[in-house]
Structure formats: C-alpha cells, structure tokens
From TrEMBL:
<feature type="transmembrane region" description="Helical">
    <location>
        <begin position="6"/>
        <end position="25"/>
    </location>
</feature>
<protein>
    <recommendedName>
        <fullName>Amino acid transporter</fullName>
    </recommendedName>
</protein>
<feature type="transmembrane region" description="Helical">
    <location>
        <begin position="46"/>
        <end position="69"/>
    </location>
</feature>
<comment type="similarity">
    <text>Belongs to the dicarboxylate/amino acid:cation symporter (DAACS) (TC 2.A.23) family.</text>
</comment>
<keyword id="KW-0769">Symport</keyword>
<dbReference type="GO" id="GO:0015501">
    <property type="term" value="F:glutamate:sodium symporter activity"/>
</dbReference>
<keyword id="KW-0813">Transport</keyword>
<dbReference type="GO" id="GO:0005886">
    <property type="term" value="C:plasma membrane"/>
</dbReference>
<dbReference type="Pfam" id="PF00375">
    <property type="entry name" value="SDF"/>
</dbReference>
<feature type="transmembrane region" description="Helical">
    <location>
        <begin position="214"/>
        <end position="236"/>
    </location>
</feature>
<feature type="transmembrane region" description="Helical">
    <location>
        <begin position="81"/>
        <end position="102"/>
    </location>
</feature>
<dbReference type="InterPro" id="IPR036458">
    <property type="entry name" value="Na:dicarbo_symporter_sf"/>
</dbReference>
<dbReference type="InterPro" id="IPR050746">
    <property type="entry name" value="DAACS"/>
</dbReference>
<feature type="transmembrane region" description="Helical">
    <location>
        <begin position="248"/>
        <end position="273"/>
    </location>
</feature>
<feature type="transmembrane region" description="Helical">
    <location>
        <begin position="359"/>
        <end position="388"/>
    </location>
</feature>
<keyword id="KW-0472">Membrane</keyword>
<keyword id="KW-1133">Transmembrane helix</keyword>
Amino acid sequence: MNENRLTILTLTGVMCGVIIGVILKNYSNRQWSERDIMYFQFPGEIFLRIINCLVLPLIISSVVSASCYLSKSGSIGLKAFYYYCTTTSLGIILAVTLVQTIKPGEFYVNRNTTVSNHIKKSVTADAFLDLLRNLFTDNLIKASLSQTQITSPLNSTNDENINSWEIHHRDNDGTNVLGIVGFCLVLGIAIGHLEEKGKPLNDFFKSLSDTVMLMMDWVIMIVPAAVLFLIPGKILEAENITLMISNLGLYVLVVFAGLFIHSLIVLPLLYFICTRKSPYSLLLKTGPAIITALGTSSSTATVPMTIKCLNRIGVNPKVSQFIAPIGATINMDGIALYETIGALFIIQQRGLDFSLMQIISIAITCTVSCIGAAGLPSGGYVMLIVVLESIGIPAEDIDTNIPDNKTPAAK
C-alpha cells in the first residue's frame, strides 16, 4: 500500500472526479457557464501548466544525455524504430479491420449530403512534407512555440487545380516536439563521438535531467488533487452526453474497442513474443503512468511518470530516458487509431465508396499526421481535421451529430 500509494490516490481521485462531475451535471440546479467551469478546473489547469513547462527541459536533457551513449550502443535506436513502426502499423490495421467489419458509419448514413462544393485544401503528400519540415526545423525557438503546416490560399476554389495553387505555410500553436527531439538526438550523438572532450557537456545535460526529474517528482505528488478538478470540468463541458451516445454510440464503441484490443491484447502479445514474460505484471507496475494519462488526457504530461515507473521496474535509466520522450512524441498509436476510425466513419456516413487502396492511403495519412502531434487534450481532433481536409471532406462533418457543435468537449 505504501509503495503504491500515489497510484491508489490517483485512481481514487479519478473515481471521485467522475462521481462529482456526474452529480454536479445531473443533480444540480445550477447552469454551469464556461466561466464557472473555468473556475472549477483552475487547480487542474495550474497543474497542467507546470507539467507542460517542465516537459520541454526534461525531453531536451533526457534525450541529449541518453543519446550520448547511442554511438556505443546504436542498436537501441534501431530497436526503438522497429518497435514504433510495428506497433503503429498494427494499430492502423486493427482500426481499418474494425471499421470495415462493423461499418459504424452506415448506421448514420446521410444520403442527402455531397462533397462537391467543398474545397480540397491539401493532398496526401502535404502530410509527409509537413512531417519532414517539422523534423528538420529551421529555428529551435520557433519550434518551442509552433508547428509548420501547409495550407491553401484563402481565395481558392474547386475549379482550380490544387497543384497550381500558390503554396502557403501556417504556424499552428503547439510545441514542435518532433523537431526538438530530432535536434537533441543529433546533438547527443555528436557529444558522444567527442568522448572525453564532450564529457563536460554530457555531465551538464545529465545533471539537468536529474534536476528536472526531481522537480517533476514534486509536481507529480499533486496529481490526485489535479484530476479531482480536471475530470468533473470535462464532464460539465459536455452539453448532452446522453444525446451524444445515442447519436454516436456505435462509433464510440468501435473507438474504445480498438483502444482496448490494441492496449490489452496486441501490445501485451508483442511483449510476450519478444520477452517470453507476462505482460500483465508489467502493466500493474506501470499503473501510475496509465492512471496519470487517463486523468490528464496528455501523453506529454505523462512522460515523467512513465520514466519513473520504468526506472522503478529495473529498466536502465539511459534507455528509459531515451525511449519514453521519443515514444510520447512519435509513437502515437492511440491518435493514429482514433483518426483512422474517425475518417473512415465519416466517409461511410456520407455514403461514399472508397477503394481499398484509397482506404490504405487515408490510413497512411493518419499515421504520418499523428507523428509529432502535440500530446495534449483534443490533439487527435485537430489532426483529424487535417486528414479530412486532405481528402476533400469538410471538417464541419466532425460536428454533425454532436449537440451544439461542442465536439472537443464532448469527445
């Protein structure tokens, strides 16, 4: 009990948060305005701001200090790359299989809608190019504040060939973690190659990593209190959960089924094949990270807790401090699965007939677009809009069956 007290307290905070949210929403005569909800969530908001403030120094110091040793053990980087590609591919295959088997969109087909008047704002290649632009950033300070995305001209029309448009770039708010991680990897490998000459710089980043981790340990202690305010706030934001479930119940079930199958069957099976050890005992030991992710809805905010759990179960800190930040940046299995199911759901809802190759193309676009996406609440919603725009489907379709167009809150 003493060893797992933070896990127990966090889980208790999540359960109490759900109960408080349901009571306040369904059994309170008060009309909760946006300002009321903002006041209620304020303690949780402060927690997320502190975590997000510390995440960037943690990622930079951890990746640089850990990658200093990659020149001596380069297989770690290759194994991580193979693992990330494998798990993301399995998640996409699972998503396509579930949607094409269950076909949730056909239960809500709207035969009267067309896409002929909508402007296709990008092509699939744009997602790949944006990925490389963000990976090879031209300004580290700018990368800390925004991500680059190609966009169409404001006066574009359907009569024009998209390839003849003047190319515009837009900087979206959100840290370009992918570009920062890429730079830190190269910097760390370069320091490692310097050997004795690079040791003072290596010691600096190692000391900085240990210092930020200590600060993170202090902040993590308030996770149970933070989720107690964050979760009720999200429940209060949802306009009408019952109506949302009735309108999108099958879609929600397919998404949850995909997430549960991938996290509780596919990934544990992959772990068992590679190690011949029980994966579920490992899941129990990483409980604090899982519960923190559930309570904060942010993979980025969960990085320090993930590193702490991995170190506690005996993983070499040089490995955990390298794998966890990069995994939280590029191994977005959940967002990739959610985006793929969401895009195919809307295609089915519109009654459109897409070939297998087109579906595969959409799945690849979803995968690429989610790499380096901001690990923040509703981050997948933003990337889904990008994917829909690239195949010529209006982003407004995301709001079609959600009461009062409150999709991010309802989701």
